[in-house]
Design goal:
This protein has 657 residues and is α/β, with parallel strands linked by helices. Helix content is 46%, strand content 19%. It contains 20 helices and 22 strands. The strands form four sheets. Strands 6, 7, 8, 9, 10, 11 and 12 form a seven-stranded mixed sheet that branches. Strands 2-1-3-4-5 form a five-stranded parallel sheet, sandwiched between helices. Strands 14-13-15-16-17 form a five-stranded parallel sheet, with helices on both faces. Helix 8 (255-272) runs antiparallel to helix 10.
Length: 657
């Protein structure tokens, strides 16, 4: 233990040294300073090397409480004990209120008192710092909750307006000369609308967990695609350099979100290099992560560094806070780096940052390595969007409804437009022939989109359904997911996105009927064990949509009852579900499954690093969250078709195992 003794009296300093030696504190190292200025300088240079400071109140260059405040402010991470000849309760209370951990009177100090005071001071100081850290985390969580409520409150109406703005811009651009000033102005309006839509998505993504669908990706290919865009954004005074590894591994990612991460980092770098400079993007392989946090597996590193003005330590500590910005009011939102951190965390990665004032900043992103080859980043083929079917369109916003009706009618569809659920049902009752497609807003006054869907399908059971939403509550989405027969179209969207979604949804019926003639896969009886209600909802509805029978449970102790009441093929369990986790589920299955025929067990987790441990414990497969249910369903069918005892334990690798 390293003790800084701040004492100007040589005799008292010698006596305190003897007490420390007799206090039976292991490995005591005494550092002596006889003036405040000397102590403050030592703490500024070596505070990390000091465990506790013993402080006399009255020194040649400082007296009283000013001495305490000066030491506490110079090293907030070092606990301070006042040791003085002044026996004064008011002064003792004032010293503690100024940041001291204890107040000892010299005449009452011996080795026992000193040992106890030092140990208590260090522990109290540690607890205070931990409490401050937890309070800061709670404040952040409350801020994020408030942000989610704010975003949810404005997103629906805001995205309605953006749908009209962006949609009509696309229609106008198709009608005017591309080289005219009108086309240029319309393009600028459209770009502003798209930026506003992106800001809304960032708010929603920060305010609540956003489900992403990571895949094996080639980071070099994504950087190559965004290279031209970044070059235009940076301008002529900033040079963009790429240093990409030729033998880069595949990594866990999602193209759109990684593109947004790179754009956000590039924008920050540009704003830090107003007089010009260099932005460098590097990629490399990092076996076993290369850091203490990421030491359990291999990672792909993406490094973005600039030669800008850099950041001081205080700014560096706050850059990932929502709404924190160093830019002028109205220039920055303070959401860019917060959204970057949220994306990287959801992908199972890490991000670190280092910076030095005057030299620049370096961001390092670590994404988990994937053994699978990345999907090819090829543009989608042109798709036919015309049709002749009858569409029931229900939207309470007049401008959005008129825009959508115009787009659909222009593509050949017969449109029945209504402003409410009641009006839609009335219009539907006037018809003899059924409608082929219902397109309805999810959130509307009176009857919402889910209730309308249920009533329309009673009259037109063969109709396909598209639900539109700028923002919807979890409860409403759950009801829609339980139906399992809809497409979700997120606002804002343009005419092309609307037509593509409509055509794909209508064509799904034809392809589904074709698939039926070939025979459907045998449905499975599946038990899902997860304490997160949203995960249970998603897996239940999605697996039912794949044709399986699903039982959802919140605790391992419910498993025996489920096994006793059904012939279960597969149990899917969260690794860390309360009540013993996946290991407890395995134990209960081994004890309760009848006739010795053990069902398959699949472990799932948001931490891909636990996969190997779960396989070794006896699970048949492991899958990392977030889950592609289509892939999961196919893998479950493959897994259950294998003979008992001969199952391939790598059948479910998941996107990040």
């Amino acid at each position: 233990m390293r003790v800084l003794l701040i004492e100007d009296d040589p005799d008292d300093a010698l006596l305190m040294g003897e007490y420390l030696q007799d206090a039976e504190i292991e490995g005591v190292e005494l550092i002596h300073a006889d003036r405040l200025e000397q102590a403050v300088r030592h703490l500024a240079e070596h505070s990390a090397a000091v465990d506790v400071a013993l402080l006399d109140l009255n020194l040649p260059d400082s007296r009283g409480l000013a001495t305490v405040r000066a030491v506490v402010e110079s090293a907030s991470d070092v606990p301070v004990i006042v040791v003085t000849g002044l026996e004064d309760e008011d002064m003792a209370l004032a010293a503690v209120n100024s940041g001291a951990q204890d107040y000892l009177v010299k005449g009452a100090v011996d080795e026992v008192v000193l040992r106890r005071a030092i140990r208590y001071a260090i522990e109290r100081h540690r607890l205070e710092r931990e409490r401050a850290r937890l309070a800061a985390e709670l404040s952040d969580a409350q801020k994020m909750k408030a942000l989610g409520l704010l975003a949810g409150g404005i997103a629906h109406d805001f995205n309605n307006m953006l749908t009209v703005i962006i949609g009509h811009c696309r229609l106008v651009r198709a009608e005017v000369d591309a080289t005219s000033r009108v086309a240029s102005s319309v393009a600028a309006i459209s770009t502003a609308g798209e930026r506003a839509a992106e800001l809304t998505k960032r708010l929603l993504a920060l305010g609540r967990e956003e489900l992403v669908a990571p895949r094996p990706v080639d980071a070099n290919a994504i950087i190559g695609e965004v290279h031209a865009l970044l070059g235009k954004m940076l301008g002529e005074d900033i040079r963009l350099e790429l240093d990409l590894s030729e033998a880069l591994w595949s990594c866990r990612g999602e193209k759109t979100q990684l593109t947004q991460v790179l754009v956000n980092l590039a924008v920050n770098a540009r704003d830090a290099m107003m007089e010009g400079g260099t932005l460098t993007i590097e990629t490399s392989n990092r076996p076993l992560g290369g850091t203490a946090e990421a030491a359990a597996q291999d990672f792909v590193a993406i490094t973005v560094r600039d030669t800008g003005h850099g950041m001081d330590a205080e700014t560096l500590e706050r850059i990932f806070e929502p709404f924190f910005t160093t830019k002028e009011r109205g220039v920055g939102t303070g959401l860019g780096l917060a959204s970057v951190l949220a994306v990287i965390k959801r992908l199972g990665g890490f991000i670190t940052v280092s910076s030095e004032v005057g030299l620049g900043t370096r961001f390092s992103i670590l994404l988990p390595r994937c053994e699978d080859l990345p999907q090819q980043l090829t543009p989608p083929a042109a798709q036919a969007t015309e049709g002749h079917e009858t569409v029931l369109l229900v939207e309470d916003d007049d401008a959005v409804r008129e825009f959508m009706a115009g787009v659909l009618e222009g593509a050949g569809y017969r449109v029945i437009a209504a402003a409410s659920g009641d009006e839609a049902l009335g219009r539907l009752g006037e018809r003899v022939s059924p409608v082929q497609l219902l397109v309805t807003d999810l959130v509307m006054p009176g009857m919402n989109g889910i209730e309308l869907t249920e009533r329309v399908l009673r009259r037109s059971p063969q109709a396909e359904v598209i639900l539109m939403s700028g923002y919807a509550s979890d409860a409403l989405l759950r009801r829609g997911m339980e139906r399992g027969d809809f497409r979700l179209l997120e606002k804002p969207f343009d005419g092309e996105a609307l037509l593509v979604t409509v055509r794909e949804t209508l064509d799904r019926r034809a392809s589904a009927s074709g698939a039926t003639s070939l025979g459907k896969p045998t449905p499975l009886s599946i038990v899902v064990v997860d304490d997160d209600p949203l995960v249970r909802v998603v897996l239940e509805a999605s697996l039912q949509r794949e044709g399986h029978e699903v039982i959802v449970l919140a605790s391992p102790e419910e498993v025996p009852g489920a096994l006793a009441g059904a012939d279960v093929d597969v149990v899917i369990t969260d690794v860390n579900v309360p009540g013993g986790g996946a290991l407890r589920v395995l134990e209960l299955i081994r004890a309760y499954v009848r006739g010795g025929e053990r069902c398959s067990v699949v472990a799932i987790s948001g931490d891909p690093r636990v996969g190997e441990r779960m396989l070794e414990a006896g699970c048949d497969a492991f899958y990392a969250k977030p889950i592609d249910v289509g892939e999961l369903s196919a893998a479950l069918l493959s897994l259950t078709r294998q003979p008992a005892g001969a199952r391939d334990r790598s059948a479910l690798a998941g996107p990040a195992s």
